[in-house]
Write a structure and sequence with these properties.
The strands form five sheets. Strands 3, 5, 6, 8, 11 and 14 form a six-stranded antiparallel β-sheet that branches. Strands 4-7-13-9-10-12 form a six-stranded antiparallel β-sheet, with no helix packed on it. With about 475 residues, it is of the alpha/beta class. It has helices at about 250-260, 275-280, 290-300, 320-335, 355-365, 410-420, 435-450, 460-474; strands spanning about 5, 10-15, 60-65, 70-75, 80-85, 105-110, 115-120, 130-140, 150-160, 170-175, 185-190, 195-200, 210-215, 220-235, 240-245, 270, 300-305, 340-345, 365-370, 400, 425-430, 455-460. It has eight helices and 22 strands. The longest helix has 17 residues, at about 320-335. Helix 1 packs parallel to helix 7 (about 435-450). The protein starts with a strand and ends with a helix.
Length: about 475
């Protein structure tokens, strides 16, 4: 059945999609069960290959090998163990294969516990981290704390020689709760400019020899598997800002769009439950397809993907999630606006949801997160900008703006961090209406600030950002 779309009330007929061929129909691997992975949908509806952000310029500060070589300083009854089921890298003697596919250390952290871990090897040669980003690889095992703010992550950088010590006090550190722990290998990035909390006699960033990671703020028993800490040069020569609008309410088309267009600034549209809205006709709370098209084709905005039938799916399997995303992409094609590299997590489909994460891996090159920091906390960098290269394309950190709580100073400070860090400030708004003058003043104030600082920061769409990223870094 072909997809059709007609004029008001924009009735859309979307054919059902297949969940993809099962693995058993494609290949057989002795160590994987049939059906444990799926082939992408055919016909051009699958996502592009995963975004690759790692040129051959990274260096390791730490590579965690196993529990025996991981030193820890702990609060609470934290223990260590080894995992051979899903190691970060296949570090195991060949003679142990295939019984042992590799080993990574696991930290067993009880509720209210915290742990600092460092690789027990002689510190490496001093590195100059000026102009570098620092990336931490790890995995929260199933059953542990997941969801925004569930775990506080801290990275400590040392400049002393000799054997690393997790109890050492001469370090600089950066921390964040602005990320979303998942049950999969993931990466969180920090710019060197985020390391602003010295302890003891802080080392110079021109002579860093090793790093430690610390996990805390955990309310439920959690196991965290360690991968490593690496550094990589920043791959942009200026900061970037992306302005996103969730749900694409009518005031996005009217008041918010008017303010941005007057200043020559683009934005990214994440329409919510688009199929239901299109079937119901004109809706004061939702932009219609003609308005979406006008912003994209005339004003250079971007139509990104979010939700098709519902923003609060319940009981979705991975196959159903793949079908949902595939049909949303088919609808974008029908509207004449295909090709976005951006998807969005929403409601109960965060990256800690294993069914939707599996679908996003298959269908979405990059996926935007959503974190709402408390008002006034931006200056303390609890909400940090995203790094370039992006740390984790499946969870790009975003500042979920609450215009009732956040001040204009909060918003411009976030932009300043992106400028300083040569990173990405990704904002996500919902309603921005002139009927609320206090909110509109903050929004137009941010737009004025971006326009006034266009010599040091680019305001652009997500796909333009990826194009720029590839031009600079790949």
């Amino acid at each position: 059945m072909a997809m059709t779309i007609s004029g008001p009330p924009w009735v859309v007929d979307i054919p059902p999609a297949s969940g993809g061929a099962s693995a058993s129909a494609l290949l057989s691997i002795a160590t994987d069960s049939a059906g444990s992975f799926k082939a992408p949908l055919v016909g051009g509806l699958a996502g592009a290959p995963p975004l690759q952000f790692w040129p051959k310029r990274r260096k390791w500060l730490n590579r965690f090998r196993d529990a025996a070589n991981t030193l820890t300083a702990i609060t609470g009854a934290v223990t260590k163990s080894d995992d051979t089921t899903d190691p970060f890298c296949a570090r195991a003697p060949l003679a142990a294969f295939p019984t042992n596919h590799g080993t990574s250390p696991v930290l067993n952290i009880p509720a209210s516990g915290a742990v600092t871990a460092v690789d027990n090897t002689t510190a490496g040669p001093a590195l100059n981290l000026t102009g570098q980003n620092i990336y931490v690889w790890f995995k929260v095992l199933p059953g542990g704390a997941v969801g925004p703010g569930a775990v506080t992550l801290v990275v400590r950088l040392y400049g002393t020689s000799g054997t690393p010590n997790p109890n050492a006090t001469d370090y600089i550190s950066a921390s964040t709760t602005n990320w979303n722990p998942t049950n999969d290998w993931q990466c969180v990035g920090f710019g060197i400019d985020d390391f602003i909390t010295p302890s003891g006699t802080p080392p110079s960033i021109t002579s860093i020899t090793h790093a430690a990671v610390r996990f805390g703020g955990i309310s439920t028993p959690t196991q965290i598997e360690l991968g490593g800490v690496m550094v990589h040069p920043k791959t942009a020569n200026r900061g970037a800002v992306v302005i996103g609008f969730d749900d694409c309410r009518a005031d996005t088309w009217t008041d918010a769009a008017d303010a941005l267009i007057d200043r020559g600034l683009p934005a990214v549209l994440y329409p919510g439950a688009l199929k239901a809205v299109l079937r119901s006709g004109v809706d004061q709370f939702q932009m219609n397809p003609l308005q979406l098209e006008r912003l994209v084709r005339t004003h250079g905005w971007q139509f990104a993907y979010q939700a098709l039938s519902t923003e609060n799916p319940v009981g979705f399997t991975a196959d159903m999630a793949v079908q949902e995303i595939a049909q949303l992409k088919a609808l974008a094609i029908a509207l004449g606006m295909p090709g976005s590299l951006a998807e969005s997590w929403f409601s109960n489909t965060g990256p800690h949801n294993p069914e939707f994460r599996a679908a996003m891996k298959l269908m979405a090159p990059s996926t935007r997160g959503f974190n709402i920091p408390s008002g006034g906390s931006i200056s303390a960098r609890s909400c940090i900008t995203e790094t370039l290269p992006i740390a984790d394309p499946l969870y790009v950190r975003a500042f979920g703006v609450d215009l009732n709580a956040h001040t204009l100073a909060n918003l411009t400070q976030f932009v300043d961090y992106a400028i300083q860090n040569k990173g990405l400030a990704l904002f996500v708004f919902h309603g921005v209406a002139v009927s609320n003058s206090a909110q509109m003043t903050k929004f137009t104030g941010l737009a004025d600030y971006l326009a006034a600082n266009d010599a040091t920061v680019d305001t652009l769409t997500w796909d333009n950002l990826i194009e720029r990223q590839r031009a600079f870094g790949l």
